[in-house]
Amino acid sequence: MSIETRGTLLGTVVFLGMLATAFGFSHLLPSKNGFDGNAFQDGAVIQEGSIGITNRDPMLGRQIFEHNCAHCHGDDASGGEGPDLHNLTKSDSRISAIIKQGIKGEMPAFGKKLTDSDIQALIAYLRTLKD
Questions:
Q1: What CA–CA distance (Å, rounded) separates 127 from 110?
Q2: CA within 20 to 30 Å of 2's CA: 21, 42, 59, 111, which one?
Q3: What is the pTM of this model?
């Protein structure tokens, strides 16, 4: 394969990746946080690009919750070891900070495991939980 062909192929792949991210197909892209890219089976995976793509998809947030939070907050988020997460009154930025930093002695920090897009999707899911 010639250098020109490789360059064209690489450019096409990058362009398609940017389109996929921009139009909400980013769960099809490889993960940067250690998951294998099966966003809806093995953990939520959103590739964040330099163009600031975010994800507020509650269905993706549900998958994130099931893989990272349900063991403490209950499968239905009604509580258990962790508190009930229905009808949250905290701001999105406060919830994000808690998820990222954790609560000393109560909840682990997820800031290194989840991307900002993962956390936004998780918050979108939490906002759907009503008593």
A1: 19
A2: 21
A3: 0.59
| pLDDT 10s digits, 54-84 | 568 899 999 999 999 999 999 999 999 999 9
Return the SS3 of 103: strand
Domains in the chain: ranges and CATH: 3-126 (1.10.760.10)
CA angle 5/10/13 to nearest 5° reads 125
Question: How many CB atoms lie under 10 A from the CB of residue 22?
Answer: 12
* Residue 103 backbone dihedrals phi, psi, to 5 degrees: -130, 120
Does residue 34 have a pLDDT over 50? no
Which of 49, 68, 36, 69 minimizes the C-alpha distance to 117?
A: 49
- Helical pair 116-126 and 92-101, crossing angle rounded to 10 deg: 120
Question: CA 97 to CA 67: how far, in whole Å?
Answer: 19
Contact, 47 vs 32, CB < 8 A?
yes
Rounded to 10 degrees, the C-alpha dihedral 44/49/54/59 comes to -20
